[in-house]
Specification:
The chain is of the alpha/beta class. It has a single domain (8-247), classed as Uracil-DNA Glycosylase, subunit E (3-Layer(aba) Sandwich). 37% of the residues lie in helices and 12% in strands. The protein has helices at 8-17, 21-29, 35-47, 84-87, 95-106, 144-161, 173-185, 223-227, 233-247; strands at residues 65-66, 72-76, 127-131, 167-171, 202-207, 210-218. The chain has a six-stranded mixed sheet with strand order 1-3-2-4-6-5. Strand 5 (202-207) and strand 6 (210-218) form a beta hairpin. It is globular. The termini are far apart. Bound molecules: iron/sulfur cluster.
C-alpha cells in the first residue's frame, strides 16, 4: 500500500483495504488527512525540546505497537509531542510511557520496564497499544473532526485483531468514548445508557453469537494524573492485573466497580 491518505474519505478507503495489522500500520504512518495535526507534528519535530535537540524526531503518525493477534488492546488518546512523536512508538520516550510500560512489565505483559526507543528491544507478547488519534495534537486536544477522521484506523484495527481479543483497556475518557464508538461500529452491543468512564470501570460487551469482550477503564498515565496522585502505580497495576486475568478467562480479583461520579481522565 503506497498511496497517502489526504482526506477523511481516503482514510476510510485505506483502512478498509488493509488486510493485516502490519499493512494498517504502514498506511497510518503515511497519513496526512488532518492539516492542523500534520503541521503541528512536523513543526514540533523541527523546533524540538531543548533536551532532545540532538534527536531526529519521528514527526509523523505513530503506528500501533505490540502483538498482531493480541488478547488485550490498550487504547490511548494520542501521541505525546516529545514522546511518541519523537520516538515513533506509542507511549515511548516520556513519563507517561515510563508509567505505562513500568506497570505492564510488573504484571507480566511487557518484556522490560523501560520504553525509550523503537530499537530498545521492548516486546508485548499478548497485548497491543494503539490510540484514538495517531498524530500528536496541540495541548493533547484533538478536535472532534480530527477524532472522527482518524476513527476508521481504529475501527479496522479492532476488526483485524478481533479473533483473539478478549479485553480492551481505555486510558482516559477520550479513549473510552472512542472505544465504545469503534466497538459499536463493529457490531458489538453497547449497553444503554452508554457506560460512563471511570477508573476500574468494567463493561461486558456481546457480539452476535460469539464470545464477548470486556472493556476496562483506566485513568490515563498523564503527568497531570500521576503528579497529583489521582493515578498511583498500584491503581495502574490493578487494572492491568485484571486485564491479564480476564484475557485468559480467569476471574479478575482486582476489578472495581466504577465510582459513583466518574471523572474523565
Ligand atoms: S490524526 Fe489520524 S487521520 Fe489525522 S493525519 Fe494523523 S493519522 Fe491521519
Amino acid at each position: 500500500m503506497t498511496s497517502i491518505a489526504k482526506s477523511a474519505a481516503a482514510v476510510r478507503r485505506q483502512a478498509r483495504a488493509a488486510t493485516s495489522p502490519a499493512e494498517l500500520n504502514e498506511a497510518i504512518e503515511e497519513c496526512r488527512a488532518c492539516p492542523r495535526l500534520v503541521a503541528w507534528r512536523e513543526d514540533v519535530a523541527v523546533v524540538k525540546r531543548a533536551a532532545y535537540a540532538d534527536d531526529t524526531y519521528w514527526g509523523a503518525p505513530v503506528p500501533s505497537f505490540g502483538a498482531d493477534r493480541p488478547s488485550i488492546l490498550i487504547i490511548g488518546l494520542a501521541p505525546g509531542a516529545h514522546g511518541a512523536n519523537r520516538t515513533g512508538r506509542m507511549f515511548t520516550g516520556d513519563r507517561s510511557g515510563d508509567w505505562l510500560f513500568g506497570s505492564l512489565h510488573r504484571v507480566g505483559l511487557a518484556s522490560s520496564p523501560g520504553s525509550v526507543s523503537r530499537e530498545d528491544g521492548q516486546r508485548l507478547a499478548t497485548s497491543r497499544i494503539t490510540a484514538a488519534v495517531h498524530c500528536a495534537p496541540p495541548d493533547n486536544k484533538p478536535t472532534t473532526k480530527e477524532r472522527d477522521t482518524c476513527a476508521p484506523w481504529l475501527d479496522r484495527e479492532l476488526e483485524l485483531v478481533q479473533p483473539e481479543l478478549r479485553v480492551v483497556v481505555a486510558l482516559g475518557g477520550f479513549a473510552w468514548a472512542a472505544a465504545l464508538t469503534a466497538l459499536a461500529a463493529r457490531g458489538w452491543t453497547i449497553p444503554k445508557p452508554r457506560p460512563r468512564f471511570g477508573h476500574g470501570a468494567q463493561v461486558e460487551l456481546d457480539w452476535m453469537d460469539s464470545r464477548g469482550i470486556i472493556l476496562l477503564g483506566c485513568y490515563h498515565p498523564s503527568q497531570q494524573n500521576t503528579f497529583t496522585g489521582r493515578l498511583t502505580e498500584s491503581m495502574l497495576d490493578a487494572v492491568f492485573t485484571d486485564a491479564r486475568h480476564l484475557a485468559v478467562g480467569d476471574h479478575a480479583p482486582n476489578v472495581h466497580q466504577p465510582r459513583p461520579s466518574s471523572i474523565p481522565e
